[in-house]
Amino acid sequence: MKLNAAPRILIVAGVCIAALIGLVVSEGAARDSGQEVLLRMQAVDPRALLSGHYVDINLTEPLNEECPPGADLRWIALRPDGEAYVLAGGAASRDQAQQVGPLPVRGSFTCAPPALVDSVAPIPGFTRLNIGISRFHINQADALRIEEILRAQRIDESTRAYAIVSVGRDGRARLRGIMVDGERLELSWL
After folding, report:
1. Whole-prediction pTM value?
2. Cα separation of 78 and 163, whole Å?
3. Residues 12, 89 within the same domain
4. Is the same domain home to 69 and 159?
5. Residue 28 and residue 54 in one domain
6. Residue 5 domain boundaries
7. pLDDT beneath 50: ranges in the chain
């Protein structure tokens, strides 16, 4: 039996829609079942902070000591520090990352150690996490408000903005939302 072009197109479109729905449902289930952690956010280049209806996620932490070991490896380890999690170090495998810190996550980090300028004023260092999360899409009014808060925040002050991240059993980080001045703004698919 030979089908005309129109029914074949409808069948392929139906399979694609079913696959997309399956992907959204499985990612939502993975996001809901993962361990929720807060990661500190800092402002990025102010000229590129807000481009449309999203906020750039820049997971940067101040650093007042030497850089943790394991930069540019495939896994990082996070450890709790107050209400948020911070970088403990990097590793080549999940098992090695669990020896460095209690929560292994797929990703890498870059680090700049603190430096002295003219042997007088220390410049704080930083670590920047790369865990595959880069943007949070939100309405324009909230995006502009968050932009102002991030621009006003300094790296040596207490953090006002956090990324809410779900770390699944597979070690993959998934963005759940952001928290700004204690207000949760969560990602919703529907």
Report:
1. 0.78
2. 14
3. no
4. yes
5. no
6. 1-33
7. 45-50
